[in-house]
Amino acid sequence: MTTSFAVDPSRGRFVEHPQMSEVVLKTENLSKSYSVKHKTIPALKDLSLEIKRGELVAIMGHSGSGKTTLLSILGCLDKPTSGSVYLDGVNLAALHGSQLTKIRRNKIGFVFQSFNLLPYLNARENVELAMESTGMSKSERSARATELLALVGLSGREEHRPQQLSAGEQQRVAIARALANKPSVILADELTGNLDGKTKYEITKLLVKLNLDGTTIVLVTHDQKVAGESERVIRLASGRIKSEGKGNLAKRKEKHGSVKGAPTPEEIKADGFYDADEASS
Fold it and tell me: Is the pLDDT of residue 146 over 50?
């Protein structure tokens, strides 16, 4: 059984928390098939998994293994052929239209490889955009966006448009946008795929920090090093779960209940958080 942890704000350290064992995302016998030229192509086959609150889970697999299809179904961007998907106990497969739109807006934060920022809006406005249908006032949205940009390390860059930001900074804006509505889970699809080694390392550290602060994250990645820094690694093959294993984050939590926030240099060295110089190679 996997032990789950929460952050105790008074001590800034991990403590075991019964609520953190709550299942946020769950699939039961999930299958998805596509029809191509009168042939049925299975993408997922009776796949069952659980994501617990506070986990950082990486999903890996070769092209065609079903990982992107799985993420699309978890994010209400596609519907399964059969089986069930539950988010905070709600069966997503039974919802339609505006119901799914509301779930996507309020319960799920998305981060994509290509950032998907609007070029004519600045960083703060791109983050604010996610909150437009929430009932928050303009000033509340602006304050929330500024706060989130500071959280991801972009204080002072709020007025910059995407073309004035580096690739890593654009991805940080995208992460801030994903956090805007305090989602139950963030779903990330190859979010480091367009980044160089050093920037990839920095974004991975940011994901770990956000997770240590309580954010549930599910990411699809081809990158072994990025996946290795997660709490749990799920490998798919031919639409099924091939294997599961612990990542470095799980080992760190179990080992010494790490201090809240980004890993310290000592922890990175001791627990194998990959080196920035090595990442750039």
Answer: yes
